[in-house]
Recover the amino acids of this structure.
């Protein structure tokens, strides 16, 4: 189902910052260019983004550090000046002479009759856009105070910012702030897209992400194995028409388990999402006090509170967790479902309270045909760490969760991560409007429906996450982010899955 031609593009792959640094020189050589030529191309690309994103800004403030990132900034400054823009270059140590290609770019700026100033608030107030070339991808420890002070001042101003490669102060691999981090409006990342720009706080910090391969993509892609895939709905081919002679049994029998007393809505959302995602038959097993609430208004959902074993034998796939609770009924139900799915090797999606119950087990279940869908809090409980730990290195903890349970882990949030122990993917879709009650329940229903229809765990998890997030983006584009309801996703998902 993945379109391999699209997936081969560098714009759909993520590379660790150290892999880019270690291989860009050889990629340049094999592309018959020098590293300084790449620096020139980077600076030109930055200025193009200034012209595109902020065409009315006639005064540019370029903040430079001491490495190659600064060299890119000097080139961008020179391009802007040649185009007739007013440009001011500021550095923490204005008198410091840089080495290597960055020094060559600095010398070009100075030989054109220009100077380097010390940063102050007045210069910031006078400019129309800031080019952030302070700190690059080589920084992985907490930044010095003099840089932190500049970053604070820039973040507190209303002047738009374009960051070069990564926002200064951001760990390019994890997306974690190194004490302070520029909050950019646009980030132009170079040669390879860094994973820290695509998930968690890093996705917020980089603003709109622009990728420039600097003309070495063919050589670079042959040298370096990507760290992860970056998923877009366009990478997935259509499901195709259904067979004329098919019937409801051809598209799976999904059992959704949850809906304790007082929490019927969650399992109802999962069940209806599964129907809207193409599952042939969907049955819910709920607490007896939730039957009416789940069945009302959706007669296509089969609902029961008795004979769980019979329901499990009927199902080809199970979703457990939405509205499950953690009382005695929930614990007994959870144990029976997992025992059955393990003994029958049946695909299962664990969400919400099923994850909380899983975290309380003395020993980890082995769930090789399962998808776990934790948010950061649930992942923290599963792994015995803090939420801050998870958010500081989402890739690492998604991997740990997948390895601990031998499952596919879907770590939800900005830039949802899908890790199946051997490969990693990040969803590029989604928006803050989806941070609403029930959104995760809808996702679990989508995932269950795709598994029930015969998709592999790998494709179902990647496509399901992408489908869910893109549906949210489509709704936000139509109506805005505020006020989005989880149930609003049903029609958007149905429209996407039939395209």
């Amino acid at each position: 189902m993945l379109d391999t031609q699209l997936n081969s593009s560098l714009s759909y792959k993520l590379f660790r910052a150290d892999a880019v640094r270690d291989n860009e020189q050889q990629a340049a050589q094999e592309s018959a260019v020098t590293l300084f030529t790449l620096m020139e191309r980077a600076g030109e690309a930055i200025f193009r983004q200034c012209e595109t994103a902020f065409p009315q800004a006639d005064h540019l403030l370029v903040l430079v550090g001491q490495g190659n990132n600064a060299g890119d900034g000097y080139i961008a400054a020179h391009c802007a000046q040649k185009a007739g823009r007013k440009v001011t270059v500021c550095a923490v140590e204005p008198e410091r002479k840089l080495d290597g290609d960055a020094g060559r770019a600095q010398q070009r700026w100075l030989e054109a009759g220009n100077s380097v100033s010390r940063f102050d608030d007045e210069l910031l107030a006078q400019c129309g856009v800031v080019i952030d070339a302070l700190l690059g991808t080589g920084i992985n420890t907490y930044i010095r105070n003099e840089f932190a002070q500049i970053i604070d001042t820039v973040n507190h101003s209303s002047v738009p910012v374009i960051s070069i490669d990564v926002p200064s102060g951001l760990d390019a691999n994890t997306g974690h702030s190194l004490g302070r981090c520029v909050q950019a409006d646009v980030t132009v990342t170079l040669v390879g897209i860094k994973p820290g720009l695509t998930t968690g706080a890093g996705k917020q910090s980089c603003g709109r992400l622009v990728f420039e391969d600097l003309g070495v993509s063919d050589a670079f892609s042959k040298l370096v194995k990507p760290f992860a895939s970056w998923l877009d709905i366009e990478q997935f081919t259509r499901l195709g028409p259904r067979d004329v002679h098919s019937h409801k049994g051809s598209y799976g029998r999904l059992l959704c388990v949850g809906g304790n007393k007082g929490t019927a809505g969650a399992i109802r959302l999962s069940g209806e999402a599964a129907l809207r995602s193409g599952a042939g038959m969907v049955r819910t097993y709920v607490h007896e006090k939730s039957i009416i609430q789940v069945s009302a208004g959706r007669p296509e959902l089969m609902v029961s509170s008795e004979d769980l074993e019979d329901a499990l034998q009927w199902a080809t796939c199970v979703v457990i967790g939405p509205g499950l609770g953690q009382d005695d009924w929930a614990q007994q139900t959870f144990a029976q479902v997992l025992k059955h799915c393990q003994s029958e090797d049946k695909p299962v999606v664990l969400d919400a309270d099923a994850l909380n119950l899983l975290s309380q087990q003395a020993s980890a279940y082995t769930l090789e045909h399962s998808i776990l869908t934790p948010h950061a809090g649930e992942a923290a409980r599963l792994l015995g760490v803090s939420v801050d730990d998870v958010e500081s290195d989402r890739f690492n903890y998604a991997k740990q969760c997948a390895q601990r349970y031998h499952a596919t882990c879907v770590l939800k949030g900005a830039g949802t991560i899908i890790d199946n122990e051997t490969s990693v993917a990040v969803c590029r879709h989604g928006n803050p409007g989806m941070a609403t009650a029930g959104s995760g329940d809808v996702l679990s229903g989508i995932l269950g429906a795709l598994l029930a229809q015969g998709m592999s765990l790998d494709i179902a998890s990647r496509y399901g996450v992408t489908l869910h997030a893109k549906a949210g983006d489509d709704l936000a584009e139509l109506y805005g982010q505020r006020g989005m309801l989880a149930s609003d996703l049903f029609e958007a998902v149905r429209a996407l899955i039939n395209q």
